[in-house]
Amino acid sequence: MRYTPRMSDSSESFDVVTVLGAGTMGHGIAQVCAAAGAQTRMYDIDDAFVRTGLERVAKNLQKGVDRGKVSEDDRVATLTRLTGTANLEEAVTGATLVIEAVPEKLELKRELLGKVAAIAGPRAVLGTNTSSLSVADIASGLEAPERVIGTHFFNPVHIMKLLELIVAPQTSPEVVARVTAFGEKIGKECITVRDSPGFATSRLGLVIGLEAIRMVEQKVASPEDIDKAMTLGYGFPMGPLKLTDLVGLDVRLHIAEYLAEKLEDGAHFQPPQLLRDMVAAGKLGKKSGRGFYEWD
Predict the structure, then answer these.
(1) Strand pairing class (162-167; 189-194)
(2) Residue 121: is its pLDDT beyond 50?
(3) Which ranges constitute the DSSP H helices of 120-238?
(4) What are the residues whose beta carbons fall under 8 Å from the beta carbon of 220, sequence distance 6 or more?
């Protein structure tokens, strides 16, 4: 069955949103959707993961209240609209927009969205929060692949303003219009990018990050001074090495290897040996407590 938009689709909002994954990206996506008024369900494979995701949303909102960025009424309303479950069918049934935010593995994303397509109605739009994988490949073999669109959010989702929308050749223009309008509703500035390896943000950001790692490897300067050069000299809000720690060195390594393979001129995406060594040693950045910086 094909996705067949109604005449009102281009302006119709998504009233029930499901986010697949309660981790770093998933809980943030769920938070901004619920804050914008959508009934939001957050799914993960284990109840403990779901509870942790809900707790992180509550903590983010309380910080917002403490800093005067979020009203107490908005905090309560957001939490009221957000639920969590480890039952995929319960999470997806009746959803009008489903966004997967699971690890960056093609087969995992494809398999999960295949299950979702079999449960959700044919009119449900499917978003994939990928930072580099081909949206066309993820949608391949799915029912109504024209309803699949890349929705690349940035961490921390409740603070970062950018939403990169990746349009595959088969993605419906109506889907692009609806998701763009929804992105604006949840407080994001949307950019639209053709489905190509690394899109715009990962491709540009990774080049800078890899070169910064090479500079550390070659003892050009310390990580702190390299980051300071970019924040004070170029106005970056965060240095490329601290950002690498936040993203995860293992994630950066995976994306670099993928782009080096997929792009015709991908030689400059070959990972520095230092990056490979740090990942092998378990120095993954903030999530492991140590990367280019020490983290609590």
Answers:
(1) parallel
(2) yes
(3) 135-139, 173-185, 201-217, 223-233
(4) 226
Domain with CATH 1.10.1040.10 in the chain: 202-288
Could you report the per-residue pLDDT of 149-208, keeping only the tens digit for each?
A: 999 999 889 999 999 999 999 999 999 999 999 999 999 999 999 999 889 998 999 999
CATH topology of domain 202-288: N-(1-d-carboxylethyl)-l-norvaline Dehydrogenase; domain 2 (1.10.1040)
How crowded is residue 9: how many other Cβ atoms within 10 Å of its Cβ?
A: 16
* Cut 0.85: pTM above it: yes
pLDDT tens digits, 32-48 = 999 999 999 999 999 99
Please report how the helices 240-247 and 201-217 are oriented relative to each other, as an axis angle in degrees rounded to 10: 110
Top-level class of domain 16-194:
alpha beta
| CATH 3.40.50.720 boundaries in the chain | 16-194
